[in-house]
């Protein structure tokens, strides 16, 4: 504004002088008109200069505002990077000092504490009896032999001690459950070579006798891959995901507890089923089956069945690509299911997203895609009041050394929290002892140890 005033003063002075000059020299009207035109021209020049000054000032202010916004964005990005870098650094140093308090710090992470040999440990199950924590590690195969023992360990938080061995045939999964006051273990057996039963080997149920598990019942399955126990309206069920018989087109089985034993309740058509999970949304009950392979393609839909009150009926198909696992979890009032995808035959790639679906009130709709590499398992667990999902990345197409990922369950969905690398990993299993949370990582290679991580912070 000071520049404008200066221009105005200069123009006014020059105009006065010139007009005075005309009056002194002559009263000629032509002289006066000429000087007035010159004055107007000078005023126009001053106005243009003023406009240029205002434009420059406006540009300067806008540049300063843009600079401030850019600096704020940079600060926000730096804060986010600091958090990510902190988590990454911790994941790269799994042997960092363990506070060992079982309390929750500002930064928490999974730290490797035990590495031990296991025979292609595709599955594990933890349970507590009389104040002791047990971990059953199921054995699938050793040196090409399927008829081998699986091991039940007692775990004290630092060491594993063999408690009992259980004869199994190509065991892939186990689940612990209680009916009334009795405790049981069900083992899904995939392949038997002890009696040449092959994929028709029966799965087994064991019962706790007060000091150990005794054999209780054999259940007909065909290439069983997974087992899940659940209750609906005080009725107990045991569901097996069956992969194959003479072909991958077979039936998965649901058994019902009847008169003190399990009786076949329903056979569900399935294609190379690898996982089964019970899901409850309010008063509705579902059974999800992850289908891996049809015999010709891995690009086959997985299925969700709805409990009608009398049986399970088909409810929804979910596109999957080598569906290896299905897992359910809740966050607030929302219910989710996740499918681990292993392989897309159409693109000949193991680098394929796994999917999370959310219940929208009428069906499960896609909620989030998670980049995975030959994913074989999803495991939901809680540590320090926060919910997480561990994804086992088994194969990136060129090696079996893919980093597996632990996600935290946030309001906007799953967010990557930590990477851990376990060679040949196929299974996660979480369990708690006191205030501490642990993760078992099973591998499918005799030469690669299974691992136990402890959640520390």
Give an account of the 3D structure.
This protein has 457 residues and is of the alpha+beta class. The protein has two helices and 28 strands. A four-stranded antiparallel β-sheet has the order 1-28-27-26. A hairpin with a 6-residue loop joins β27 and β28 (450-456). α1 runs antiparallel to α2 (29-92).
Q: Could you write a compact summary of the structure shown?
A:
The protein has 457 residues and is of the alpha+beta class.
List the SSEs and their pairings.
Blueprint: H1 2-25, H2 29-92, E1 109-116, E2 123-129, E3 132-138, E4 147-155, E5 160-169, E6 171-179, E7 182-189, E8 203-208, E9 213-219, E10 224-232, E11 235-242, E12 249-258, E13 261-271, E14 273-281, E15 284-291, E16 301-307, E17 312-319, E18 323-331, E19 334-341, E20 351-359, E21 364-373, E22 375-383, E23 386-393, E24 404-410, E25 413-420, E26 425-433, E27 436-443, E28 450-456
Antiparallel strand pairs: 1-28, 2-3, 3-4, 4-5, 6-7, 7-8, 8-9, 10-11, 11-12, 12-13, 14-15, 15-16, 16-17, 18-19, 19-20, 20-21, 22-23, 23-24, 24-25, 26-27, 27-28
Helix pairs in contact: 1-2
Specify the number of helices: 2
Mean pLDDT: 87
Structural class: alpha+beta
- Name the shape in a single word: elongated
Helical content stands at: 10-25%
Strands of the widest sheet, in order across it, are 1-28-27-26
SSE order, as H and E?
HHEEEEEEEEEEEEEEEEEEEEEEEEEEEE
The separation of the N and C termini measures 61 Å
Largest sheet: 4 strands, antiparallel
Oligomer: single chain
